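User: Can you predict the 3D structure of TIM barrel protein? Sequence below.
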Amino acid sequence: IQPALDIIRTVNSKSVKFLYCAPHTFYFGDDTAAMLREAADVLAHVHVGDTFNHKASSGLRYILNPPGTQARVHQHLDIGQGEVPWDDFFGTLAAIGFDGIMTACVFAWEDRADHSGRFMRAEMQKYIDQYWGTK
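Assistant: Sure. Here are the predicted C-alpha cells for TIM barrel protein:
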C-alpha cells in the first residue's frame, strides 16, 4: 500500500484520501493492523468483507486450469466466512481513532444479498460496540 499512501500524502489534499478494502488484505500483506496504522493519517473509508488468504496451503488455495494461468481469485464474503483477522481490523481502527465511512463489501451471492446485508450490518455493529463502545 505504500505507493498509494505516498501519492496521497504528496497530493496533500483533504479531497484525496485512502480506502482500505479488507477483502484485498492478503494481496498487500498479511499484517492488517500494521497496514491500517501506516494509513491512519489519510484513511477515510474502509470496505468490510471477508476473504481467504490466497497464499495459504503453499499457494494452492485456488487451483486454476490450465496451470500457470495468470489470474487472481478472491472473494468478498460475509464476516466469518474467510480469514481476515476481524479483531485486528476493528481493534486497530478504534485505536487509530477511525471516524470515517465503513461499507459492507460483499458480492458473493446475489440470491442472498438481502440476508447478507442485514448480517453484515449486525456483525459490523457488534465490532463497533466492542471496540468503540455503545453510545
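The chain has one domain: 2-132. Helices lie at 2-11, 25-28, 32-39, 86-95, 113-132.
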